[in-house]
Design a protein that fits this description.
The protein is α/β, with parallel strands linked by helices. The protein is about 40% helix and about 30% strand. It has helices spanning about 10-15, 50-65, 100-105, 120-130, 150-160, 170-180, 200-225; strands at about 1-5, 20-30, 30-40, 40-45, 70-80, 90-95, 115, 135-145, 165, 185-190. It starts with a strand and ends with a helix.
Length: about 230
């Protein structure tokens, strides 16, 4: 079993990487990949930087070059629901591109306007979140190429897509995983409320990432048991 763990920022994934036994670092197409071990599990950690093109390109390398079986995408996100609060975890049920017309997604390859996360990985994430006693929501994540802070854009996305949160990489990773028939899960920790008052800094990112780190490490423990 080989697992790819991908994040846009080093700060988001450092907690996971530091808990692994890193064997080598490889640079491909400008992206950093770390081949590592977690007991019986082979892991490749990838840092893709921000945005859909970067994350899609990096995901394809994970699949084509490293032969990944499962993809876990970690990161932060802006809340799109009143009951989704700062540092809550979001476990993806499905992902959508909020900046691409639905008719285009359905009418053109890969003829999908939503990308459903792996049932196996989602159930594993839910089990793990309960074990570590972290507050979580299961639902839709919306992805686009901009950092949303204005109320009109936020209201439009809520009306059209009804997501739990919004971010900039998840649907692109899901899209690439889908066309390659690789199981995936996207996990987000809430860092802001996607409003004009949003002010991200390293402290907020680090705090939010502690929750995704804890959840991911618990998932790896559970996956490792399956390898025994």
């Amino acid at each position: 079993m080989k697992i790819g763990i991908i994040s846009a920022l080093a700060l988001e994934i450092e907690g996971v990487k530091s808990s692994l036994s890193v064997k080598s670092e490889i640079n491909l197409a400008g992206f950093k990949f770390f081949e590592a071990q977690y007991d019986k599990l082979d892991i490749v950690v990838a840092i893709c930087d921000v945005g859909k093109v970067n994350s899609a390109s990096c995901t394809q390398i994970l699949i084509s070059h490293f032969g990944i079986d499962y993809i876990i995408n970690l990161g932060i996100a802006g809340s799109m629901k009143n009951d989704v609060l700062l540092y809550d975890l979001i476990i993806s049920k499905e992902l959508v591109h909020y900046d691409v017309r639905k008719s285009q997604m359905i009418g053109r390859f890969p003829y999908q306007d939503t990308f459903k996360a792996s049932d196996f990985l989602r159930n594993l994430a839910i089990k793990s979140a309960n074990l570590i006693e972290k507050k979580y929501h299961v639902g839709r994540i919306a992805t686009g190429e901009s950092f949303v802070t204005d109320s009109k854009t936020k209201e439009r996305i809520i009306k059209e897509f009804g997501p739990h949160c919004i971010e900039m990489e998840g649907a692109a990773i899901a899209h690439v995983a889908f066309i390659n028939r690789v199981d995936f899960i996207v996990i987000r920790s809430i860092s802001d409320n996607a409003s004009a008052s949003t002010s991200l800094n390293d402290r907020i990112i680090e705090t939010a990432s502690k929750n995704t780190t804890a959840l991911t490490l618990e998932m790896l423990k559970e996956l490792n048991l399956l390898e025994s």
